[in-house]
Amino acid sequence: MASHIVGYPRMGPKRELKFALESFWDGKSTAEDLQKVSADLRSSIWKQMADAGIKYIPSNTFSYYDQVLDTTALLGAVPERYNWNGGEIGFDTYFSMARGNASVPAMEMTKWFDTNYHFIVPELGPNTKFSYASHKAVSEYKEAKALGVDTVPVLVGPVTYLLLSKPAKGVEKTFSLLSLLDNILPIYKEVVAELKAAGASWIQFDEPTLVKDLDSHQLETFTKAYTELESSFSGLKVVIETYFADVPVKAYKTITSLNAITGFGFDLVRGTKTLDVIKSEGFPSGKYLFAGVVDGRNIWANDLAASLSTLEALEGIVGKDKLVVSTSSSLLHTAVDLVNETKLDDEIKSWLAFAAQKVLEVNALAKAFAGQKDEAFFSANAAAQASRKSSPRVTNPEVQKAAAALKGSDHRRATNVSARLDAQQKKLNLPILPTTTIGSFPQTIELRRVRREYKANKISEEAYVNAIKEEINKVVKIQEEFDIDVLVHGEPERNDMVEYFGEQLSGFAFTVNGWVQSYGSRCVKPPIIYGDVSRPKAMTVFWSSVAQSMTSRPMKGMLTGPVTILNWSFVRNDQPRFETCYQIALSIKQEVEDLEAAGINVIQIDEAALREGLPLRKAEEAFYLDWAVHSFRITNCGVKDTTQIHTHMCYSNFNDIIHSIIDMDADVITIENSRSDEKLLSVFREGVKYGAGIGPGVYDIHSPRIPSTEEIADRIKKMLAVLETNILWVNPDCGLKTRKYAEVKPALTNMVAAAKQLRTELASAK
């Protein structure tokens, strides 16, 4: 029985690609240096999978930024503002699209389905000129072949690519992106022809949009695309890979009826109903089924006995020789290798499997199904499963009782937001168009060194506290110098907004090298929620109080919300996610009330990832939004009217959940806006009334580009056209930790200048 991996993490076990990218961007290394690091990583990954016995090993899943941007490069779909003159797309154009440059902004970035991974959104229109402009897929296949590894080249499918795109600026929003199918298929044919000529026997097309609610026209486009490509597939085997959810019955029927396709990949972990669809609808004779039974999105060890049962159920439908054991999705969303974790205790470690271990699980299942079961491997797995179910550290009855009691109330503040804002204004006395930032300030090399040495017990607690106080004082003075109205302490004590809280909550475990790529060189280290969650002691009160003592201006207490902590962690899979979220919400509620008691009058509870967790199917959205929004309200339902509650959201499409955002009942929301071409403002143009404070971001912090005062003022004017003056805030899109002070200082100076310019204009217009 064959084995297959959908995709693999590309950063490297010690984030080698991250450091190589940042060195290249900073001008400290050459393109050749970057390419060498990348080639070494690819070689290691391919060899690892080959040595593990994987038959279908992916290539072209490596990326310098993301796979959708790679497809934009492949198709030569470069927006005109980047002044690309044709030919093979190089690093300058590629990274300008991803990050912007001194003269033009980056393309929009948004979340990859319901993950914390991001992609650069293609900008297309009727005048987009397509050409075969990146030969990366072919060159990487040849690279692997030269190493003695025959791979399955992976391409983002043509229909998914178009459905993930957006109309370019100036193009009617009603423009049909699928009408461009005939323009891009000739390039796909060229790529397929070159791969076939290079010796490829299989090609994988990733079409994850098939798990969404597609209309008949969209489904017909899949049929059209792969019927048109059929002649190109002669002599090749082709698999269409889906992941992240169930494939609806209509979509299942559409793709399994495609004559040109040899195999179909399904996520049987998150797609809990797909097995029933296969049983009820049948499976085409002679085709391969790539059974995604090993979770590509979480870090829990596979229940091998349960997976074998699933495979046995499929055997009767598909036949043993056409069944392939696979991961449920790319392993991009998991940490790289458990071997690098030296500080996790043995019990918890036995419950886990990172990407390298998942490769072994896939192969072990394939061998067992073929009659070569590794009894020792399966026995150890069964023991770990039993240990996790019975461990007393997983369950806390008091926490479960408190969380269960939450279900009897909707936890709303007693006073409406308009009255609260009036009470808060009397206390805070803010100007119109108040300025603030989102939370973090640049994380310097020196600051990271201090935190690292303190964790390693190389410096005393006193030295650490003094160093952090000094950094906070610096950040406070900078903000006062710029005349920002509501300050932040800059979060110098935090490496990551989720990890910091998880380290102080019960029920969490932490890794040393459990890094996962979020976008570009940005990596996060998700905590592992293995048990019931509670707060043993205050987490942020000391630092917030220190910061407030340094200024007479309002200082925000900075917290991460329960839904974001949940969505940015590896979450236990032995109870519903909402139960874990309610437990976290209770812990954050205790922290909010302690901050208020300490005299912090503005408290920000970030829910950056609330939209990210929205289910991919419409029928499941209402339930998620109900408990997610409820969880947020739990955190702050008990504060006084004069305590101003902020929240923050970024890098997702919020327009479709705007009513749920309103239902969160925050006093102020700061929300990403500038990088997405201000599409957030369109909901207000369409008549949605928003009565709370709102700060749509005025500049993109994920680009090194510094916006001018005039550019920011123009953005604020666009906001004032659809929002009331008395509710509008002025702030960047997101936190500033990834930027340098040389970028932050002029950008914030220009932001405040723009706000003051608009205040003057508004005053003179009265």
TrEMBL record:
Domain Cobalamin-independent methionine synthase MetE C-terminal/archaeal as annotated: residue spans: 433-756
Protein residues bound to L-homocysteine: I438, G439, S440, D606
Catalyzed chemical reaction(s): 5-methyltetrahydropteroyltri-L-glutamate + L-homocysteine = tetrahydropteroyltri-L-glutamate + L-methionine
Residues where L-methionine binds: I438, G439, S440, E491, D606
Biological process annotations from GO: methylation
InterPro entries per the UniProt record, alphabetical: Cbl-indep_Met_Synth_N (IPR013215), Cobalamin-indep_Met_synthase (IPR006276), Met_Synth_C/arc (IPR002629), UROD/MetE-like_sf (IPR038071)
Cofactor binding note: Binds 2 Zn(2+) ions per subunit.
Active site positions: H702 (proton donor)
Record-listed 5-methyltetrahydropteroyltri-L-glutamate binding positions: K18, N116, R522, C523, W568
Entry-linked Gene3D superfamilies: 3.20.20.210
Biochemical pathway: Amino-acid biosynthesis; L-methionine biosynthesis via de novo pathway; L-methionine from L-homocysteine (MetE route): step 1/1
Binding site for Zn(2+): H648, C650, H659, D663, E672, C734
Cofactor(s) this protein requires: Zn(2+)
EC number: 2.1.1.14
Claim: Transit peptide is one of the keywords in the record: no
The organism's place on the tree of life at top rank: Eukaryota
Domain Cobalamin-independent methionine synthase MetE N-terminal: 3-316
GO MF terms held by the record: 5-methyltetrahydropteroyltriglutamate-homocysteine S-methyltransferase activity; methionine synthase activity; zinc ion binding
Pfam families: Meth_synt_1 (PF08267), Meth_synt_2 (PF01717)
Function text: Catalyzes the transfer of a methyl group from 5-methyltetrahydrofolate to homocysteine resulting in methionine formation.
Annotated family: Belongs to the vitamin-B12 independent methionine synthase family.
The name this protein goes by in its record: 5-methyltetrahydropteroyltriglutamate--homocysteine S-methyltransferase
Organism: Dendrobium nobile
